[in-house]
Amino acid sequence: MKKFHLNILGERINPGFKSTRALFDTEDFAGIQALAVKQVEAGAFALNVNVGPRAKSDPQFMAEVIRAIQAVVSVPLSFDFPGADVQEVCLKAYDQGKASGQLPIINSIAETRWDLLDLLKIRPFKVILMGTERLEDGVAKPNKTGAEIAATAKRATLRMVRDHGMTVSDVYVDISVSALIADTTGMTRATLDGIRLISSDPELKGINISGGLSNIGQQLPVNAADGSNLKEQLEFAFLTLAVPSGMNTVLGTPWRAYKPLDDDNFVLNTFKGFIDLTGSNALRQVRKFYKA
């Protein structure tokens, strides 16, 4: 069976998963450790760590989770919280020696959250960079085209290289994957265009392009019109187009067999018909995924 050559950033240590939230609620550190081991054994190159709002109200719990995970696995960790105060706790709790010498990852930096780079005074780290928003004349603005996504990624990455001594390969650009049911403005096309533009830029050679896929099938039925698993097939359809264009990393579930879809696949062809549409035409095409 064909599979993508993807780097999988394990997503399961996150209270968005009910089973994981139960582990946090009961402070079941042995269960959290087992989940970490399961992801690494399934091929995760790193683990994303997100304990939800408790990271703010009880940052030491986040530190305890980090230490528990590092006691059983030796991959780098990604710290998923927008606040510098929590990220500081994470960076101080992280033991690089227990991660085979590999740097931690800050999830996530944006031009609108540039102050997080002050944390480099604590220790070096890699970054997940948000390609979906930019700072323009001091105002945060969403990126709506592939050119805007690529320009933000380039500007921010080269600034980190120039001003902070990072390398291009230290950066994972999060291109963000939209929910199809709400995409009436062509954001999916913009995302795919952004991937192509970033990966083809010689000044960004070695950069990583990442994204989470869980939003893409949000609020859609379980099954496609051909009886297949719609959400899974949509994730695979997106990757079938994105990976050849340069996407190399997924925030995802390591034991899911991410694979390219055949040219005659129903969901892939319906997806191809969707990405160039906007407005009511896009909504009509979405219905074709699940209505015969």
Strand order of the biggest β-sheet? 1-2-3-4-5-8-9-10
Number of domains: 1
Going by CATH, what is the homologous superfamily?
Dihydropteroate synthase-like
Distance between the terminal alpha carbons, to the nearest Å?
28 Å
Major beta sheet, specifics? 8 strands, parallel, barrel
Please provide a written account of the structure:
The protein has an eight-stranded parallel β-barrel with strand order 1-2-3-4-5-8-9-10, surrounded by five helices. The chain has a two-stranded antiparallel sheet with strand order 6-7. The chain starts with 6 loop residues before the first strand and ends with a helix. The chain has 292 residues and is of the alpha/beta class. It has a single domain (7-290), classed as Dihydropteroate synthase-like (TIM Barrel, Alpha-Beta Barrel). 43% of the residues are buried. It contains ten helices and ten strands. It has helices at 18-25, 29-41, 54-57, 59-70, 84-93, 146-164, 187-199, 230-245, 266-274, 279-290; strands spanning 7-13, 46-49, 77-80, 105-109, 126-130, 133-136, 139-142, 171-174, 208-212, 249-252.
Brief descriptors of the model:
292 residues; alpha/beta; TIM Barrel; eight-stranded parallel beta barrel; two-stranded antiparallel ribbon; 10 helices; 10 strands; 40% helix
How would you summarize this macromolecular structure in one to three sentences?
The protein is α/β, with parallel strands linked by helices. It has one domain: TIM Barrel (Alpha-Beta Barrel). The protein is built from 10 helices and 10 strands.
Present the secondary structure layout:
Elements: E1 7-13, H1 18-25, H2 29-41, E2 46-49, H3 54-57, H4 59-70, E3 77-80, H5 84-93, E4 105-109, E5 126-130, E6 133-136, E7 139-142, H6 146-164, E8 171-174, H7 187-199, E9 208-212, H8 230-245, E10 249-252, H9 266-274, H10 279-290
